[in-house]
Amino acid sequence: MEKKYDSLYVSTLARGLQILRAFDESHISLSLTDLVARTGLEKSAVQRMAHTLHLEGMLERDPKTRHFRPSHAWLELAYAYYWSDPIIARALPKLIEFSQAKGETINLAQISGDHIIYSLRLPNQRTHFAASIVGRRLPALNTAAGRVMLSTRSDAEIAYACANWPLVQATRKTLMDRDEIARSVRSAREDGYCIARDQMLLNEISLATTVTGTDGQAHAAVQISLSGITFDEKQVLEKFLPTLLDTAAGILG
Amino acid sequence: MEKKYDSLYVSTLARGLQILRAFDESHISLSLTDLVARTGLEKSAVQRMAHTLHLEGMLERDPKTRHFRPSHAWLELAYAYYWSDPIIARALPKLIEFSQAKGETINLAQISGDHIIYSLRLPNQRTHFAASIVGRRLPALNTAAGRVMLSTRSDAEIAYACANWPLVQATRKTLMDRDEIARSVRSAREDGYCIARDQMLLNEISLATTVTGTDGQAHAAVQISLSGITFDEKQVLEKFLPTLLDTAAGILG
DNA sequence: ATCATGAATATCACTATTTGATACTAGTGA
DNA sequence: TCACTAGTATCAAATAGTGATATTCATGAT
What we know:
The structure is a homodimer.
Chain A: H1 11-21, H2 32-39, H3 43-55, E1 59-61, E2 68-70, H4 73-84, H5 86-102, E3 106-112, E4 115-122, E5 137-139, H6 144-150, H7 155-164, H8 178-191, E6 193-197, E7 204-212, E8 218-227, H9 233-252
Antiparallel strand pairs in A: 1-2, 3-4, 3-8, 4-5, 6-7, 7-8
Chain B binds a DNA duplex through residues 1, 7-8, 10-12, 31-33, 42-45, 47-48, 51, 66.
């Protein structure tokens, strides 16, 4: 048993959480043995934890296959999160406004360690599923939103992040060169926005700017995704940047 | 200590979950003592659980006030949920289509015990915050979506539900008469849709229809909210019902 | 400044609770 | 029908969690 020495650490609870975290995008429905494999816990432990989570309404169970699935309670937790984060309520009406005015996908992203997480999304018809639902995490350095948020931090932090934060090659064209990325962050600092293409998806242009408080730190980023077939980067800046900057400025204004 | 007699029940895990569930719409940020009050657990237990949840990334902690808040992980769980429920991916493009065509708020709701839960929402400018974010639970009988989903069940189930499921008086005009509600469910069965006004919010008209599988059971409901000042019920049916029925039919079609 | 109050954090002996090995049962397909 | 895999149940051992209490820290009043 993994032992962090910490007299207040409740390993039983941590083991239960491992079960919850075993579910993701590509692990939708898991059997007891799947859970054993994914968590590395004892079979009996998994049995007890999953059973308890089921009784507590955190896991659904298919009566036929006996597989476990996430329950509606997982959405209730998101609901509580939304209320708890004050930026959400301020950003949402502005994003809706943009979405209805422009008809293009717009998102709110936040920094979460060395990743970004999308906390609000207003997709349009062309948006694919993974980009339509909240809670997706992506390596910050690989995204326009991550870079522009990072650009508001100190030089030391930027240098550290560019050297150490993780990168994932999502497309053939995903930028993996850390110097290039550092350059992109530097221009984001100059410009107040960051634009990138083909990073997470081919033929996708992503444009992002920060939601900045009085402290000058980025609390979040507002980001739009556009088709790289319909637009080139210059057109994107012309057509969308002014409105996007207004949207972002309106959130904490 | 509350003892369900069940040799597989891990009470420590259940206690940890109680901490998570202590957060909701009106409990955004909780101190140790708040958590003690809300969960009824021992102070030491709360200390240990909250500490562990913090280390595991499930709770954020304000370094100044020492209060706990939900973390981004709560959104990640929602992300996993979205992938796990097959109806979500099928419904989303249809809802987007409706939203962009009509410019009105549209939601996907599902039955969760005796409540409904909103699992997808596409709000417009006029939508207030609570109605814009997913994961909200409402008593099924008080909502058009809940009634129309219930209407696809057996007579016995309907009778039981109308007699026993909870009701909450959200507005002065919320329907609290169980016979009236039963009548509303019966017409929903006839009509294939349910319309209601002033139920959760004054001057709000809600129109819902089911997403029905080959088994005839409602897997979900598609619901729209409209201003009762701009429209009357007759206009709503004329202007929106056909499209809404198409939207719902397209989901499992 | 000082004190009083309330909250958060740390400690510890006890034992109830969890553990993990194993045995049992049900379901599946050869 | 048998072999195999996956899920379920049991139980003795001891560890990991409990809860009472002590200590430290923060805040605001006097």
